[in-house]
Amino acid sequence: MSSLTTLAYELIIVSNITNLINFSMTGNRIVNPDPIEKKIYQLIISRLDGDKIHEASYRDKIFALVKKGIGGFIIFGGEKDEIKAFIAGLQSAAETPLFIASDIERGAGQQFRNATYFPFQMATAAAIDKNRPEDILLLDIVIQAIAYEAIDIGINMPLIPVMDINQNPDNPIICTRAFSDNPKTTAWFGSHYIKILEVSGLISCPKHFPGHGDTTVDSHIALPIITKSKDDLMKTNLMPFIRAIEAGAGSIMIGHLKVPALDLKPASLSKKIITDLLRKELGFNGLIITDALNMSALKDFGNIPAECINAGVDILLHPVDADVTVKELLSAIGSKEISEDQIDSALERIMYAKKRISDIKRPDVNYKAHALISEQVSEMSITLIKNSSDILPLSSDKDANLVFAGDSKIYKSSLLKNHFNMEFQTHNSELLIIAIFISIAAWKGISGLSDEEKNRIDELILNSKKSLVISFGSPYVLRHFKKADILIAAYEPSEQAQAAVIKCLKGEIDFQGKLPIKLY
């Protein structure tokens, strides 16, 4: 552990304790005199776009939902201090504390400007050796930093960690969001996240039960089908979630996944999967949350909110329209498709969780220290997978050509251009560097390269004297280029990862990463 990291750790200590609200309880049951409509609103976490809060009409819309009793918001985008102030205003206006959720798998900087962006979960797993105490300490520091920034901004339900096992190299939506393709590795890292988040007072949310790692379909676009047997599921996909329950996870997110060995219905609509398996068989007593209901995986199904409640869901995440969802559930109660008792049961768990998050400790946050920690983990993650040449480290006068592949929107401003001052030529160079940039994003549908680009890269490797291929994104693309002399995995296209690769190429730092997946 460097002295710099130790200093950073000392700068992120918890200080104040703030109680947001007291609840009235009789025995173990919440006393809630609200009418049924207000109860239903409590079961919904609606979308909040952070970059729209400057618009008066949008602010009015959000505060109107608070007045109606909305359970909370999932926040996308915005500037951290502005979001922090806006959340504080929402909490002050709410009769019951709001769940404030956000997808911050890479820290608050994933969503909010001027917060810290940490490496992808797979990069973190590549950087951290779980057999080295100093690495475990660094991991704990990273998780604590993510927790502290969440609390500082006002997030009390970070939708992390991803507990999917990425067993399909062509997975278009999980990929580097996963820690590993190994159940034990995934469970070990995820449990660390859960324990620290929960001790910090936050509600952790391992996802996407019963496992989204072994598919080539993005559930934002269509319904993935997982074809494993139940025995296989218990040993692989489900194992990290079992460990997550043991670690004290406050909530679990249900994926929009069809798993025929468990039920023919999608998991998020399945009583067999949610109530029978997760609640009864696995013994989970926390909050059960759907994946976002604006996704297209469930587009061919009927009254989705009612089916979710019937299956045993507590919280409906990100419906297209919260008001419409409430009307649909009121209608379902009227037609006896669902019962008010089911609403009350979910509401009881929600209120219990909200009482707990009212006791979150307020931290003193040093964002500069967190940035240094993130940089260190990124540098430690860079993985030298193959090196059959003596060309590394690269000297400043090395005769080399640079070729980009993948997402041109990302690589057009790549740091590699500035640091190596390389121009593309096809002949007579000592080394060809091929930098592949791939982003993992919802609705995109792919995480690899087209066959055309693979063939182009193969041809370039064949015609070069020496070749070096770097993946800034999915490491799985490297399996296509075994003939290259050097293969390097950087796990993400961020400038921070690019800077780390540049240092490794020049010999300023060592390659320290360990590949957390099987590539071949």
What brief labels describe this structure?
Rossmann fold, globular, 5-stranded parallel beta sheet, 5-stranded mixed beta sheet, TIM Barrel, 2 domains, single chain, alpha/beta, 520 residues
Q: How many discrete domains?
A: 2
Strands in their spatial order, largest beta sheet: 7-6-5-4-10
| Average pLDDT rating | 90
Strand content: 5-15%
Structure description:
By secondary structure, the chain is of the alpha/beta class. It has 2 domains: 3-33 and 105-367, Glycoside hydrolase, family 3, N-terminal domain (TIM Barrel, Alpha-Beta Barrel), CATH 3.20.20; 382-506, 3-Layer(aba) Sandwich (Rossmann fold), CATH 3.40.50.1700. It has 18 helices and 16 strands. The protein has helices at 3-10, 36-42, 56-68, 80-93, 121-127, 133-153, 183-199, 230-235, 239-246, 271-281, 304-311, 322-334, 340-357, 367-381, 408-411, 415-420, 451-462, 495-506, and strands spanning 14-17, 25-26, 29-30, 44-49, 72-76, 99-102, 157-158, 251-254, 287-290, 316-317, 361-363, 383-387, 400-406, 431-437, 467-472, 486-489. The strands form 5 sheets. Strands 7-6-5-4-10 form a 5-stranded parallel β-sheet. Strand 4, helix 3 (56-68) and strand 5 (72-76) form a beta-alpha-beta unit. It is globular and about 75 Å long.
Briefly say what this structure is.
With 520 residues, this protein is an alpha/beta fold. It is 38% helix and 13% strand.
Q: How are the secondary structure elements laid out?
A:
Blueprint: H1 3-10, E1 14-17, E2 25-26, E3 29-30, H2 36-42, E4 44-49, H3 56-68, E5 72-76, H4 80-93, E6 99-102, H5 121-127, H6 133-153, E7 157-158, H7 183-199, H8 230-235, H9 239-246, E8 251-254, H10 271-281, E9 287-290, H11 304-311, E10 316-317, H12 322-334, H13 340-357, E11 361-363, H14 367-381, E12 383-387, E13 400-406, H15 408-411, H16 415-420, E14 431-437, H17 451-462, E15 467-472, E16 486-489, H18 495-506
Parallel strand pairs: 4-5, 4-10, 5-6, 6-7, 8-9, 13-14, 14-15, 15-16
Antiparallel strand pairs: 1-11, 2-3, 12-16
Helix pairs in contact: 1-14, 2-12, 2-13, 5-14, 6-7, 6-14, 7-9, 14-18
